[in-house]
Amino acid sequence: MSSLLSKTHWLSALLLIAVLSIWELAARQFGLSALVLPAPSAVALSLCSGLASGYFWPHLWATLQALLLGLLIGSAVGLLAGMALAESELLERVLKPYVVVSQVVPKLALAPLFVLWFGFGMLPTVLITALICFFPLMENTLTGLRQVDAQRLQLFRMLGATRLQTLLRLKLPTGLPAILAGLRVAVVLALVGAVVAEFMGASQGLGAVVIAAQGMMDTTLMFAALVLIAAMGLLLYQACLVLERYLLRSHHFSTSQSGNRA
Predict the structure, then answer these.
(1) What span, in angstroms and rounded, lies between the C-alpha atoms of 229 and 64?
(2) Does the keyword Lyase apply (predicted)?
(3) Comparing C-alpha atoms, which of 189, 228, 190 is closest to residue 208?
(4) At what angle do helices 172-201 and 107-118 cross, to 10 degrees?
(5) DSSP the chain
(6) Of 21, 56, 124, 141, which has the most beta carbons under 10 Å away?
(7) Quick one: which of 25, 148, 24 has its CA closest to 83?
């Protein structure tokens, strides 16, 4: 298994090197203007220069801060809302249409309104990010909690377990894979939401760097900011995978221990 993973990593690295090499050769061979498509070497130079001078660090921190706050708020509210809707069909029938409507409205249309209502700064970015993260957690939690085996649910009822005990000891552990899958989706969407919100009126953040670079017609700086955004998203997604493996392994271990004791 480990050898297979190492081969996969090598193949991914070779693919990246091949793409960058072709890109570099094409930029040099055809004399492409840096305004249209800068060479990877020029992007790497701009990236290293910006990191060494400290230009990117405040923007990185601003985006990461807004992303994590929005992800935390949106995921927590989505998880609680999914649990509430899963426990009450009446609540689901009443509130689900409004939840769907809140998601189909384009977030780009809401961003200027949030800036108007809450002013410039981090708060509109956090709210847009939270709104984007909310739905995947809510929908996956609702789906996961509804996938409980009917026989196990009946067994809990026969043993006299309360609704809260059934939720915490049966439904949540059973729905954990679906909930964590929703978290993975939310992590990716959180970065998209944070950057898009920064396009609209943030003075700091990688999205603001992209807009500033566009205004200065500095395509190389724009690509350097996009590289940082991609790297941040990849690292957060990998961290989410590590957390998922840890939680699922812990759940499997505790389930095995309970089975052995039984």
Answers:
(1) 10
(2) no
(3) 228
(4) 70
(5) -HHHHHHHHHHHHHHHHHHHHHHHHHHHHTT--TTT---HHHHHHHHHHHHHHTSHHHHHHHHHHHHHHHHHHHHHHHHHHHHHHHH-HHHHHHHHHHHHHHHHS-HHHHHHHHHHHH-SSHHHHHHHHHHHHHHHHHHHHHHHHTT--HHHHHHHHHTT--HHHHIIIIIHHHHHHHHHHHHHHHHHHHHHHHHHHHHHH-SSSHHHHHHHHHHTT-HHHHHHHHHHHHHHHHHHHHHHHHHHHHHHHHHHHHHHHHHHH-
(6) 141
(7) 148
Residues whose CB is less than 8 angstroms from the CB of residue 143 and which lie 6 or more positions away in sequence, other chains included: 175, 178
Sorted by where each begins, the domain ranges of the chain are 67-204
| Amino acid at position 67, single letter | L
Return the closest-CA partner of residue 44 out of 68, 20, 60, 19: 20
pLDDT, one tens digit per residue, over 15-38 is 888 888 888 888 788 777 777 788
> Options 1.10.730.10, 1.10.3720.10, 1.10.287.110, 2.40.10.240; which CATH number does 67-204 get?
1.10.3720.10
Tokens 């205004």 correspond to 215
Q: How many residues are there in the chain?
A: 262
CA dihedral (81, 82, 85, 91) positive or negative: positive
pTM for the structure as a whole: 0.82
The predicted structure's pLDDT at residue 228: 93
> CB neighbours (10 Å) of residue 208?
21
The pLDDT, as a whole number, for residue 251 is: 62
Angle at 132 between CA 89 and CA 140, to 5 degrees: 40
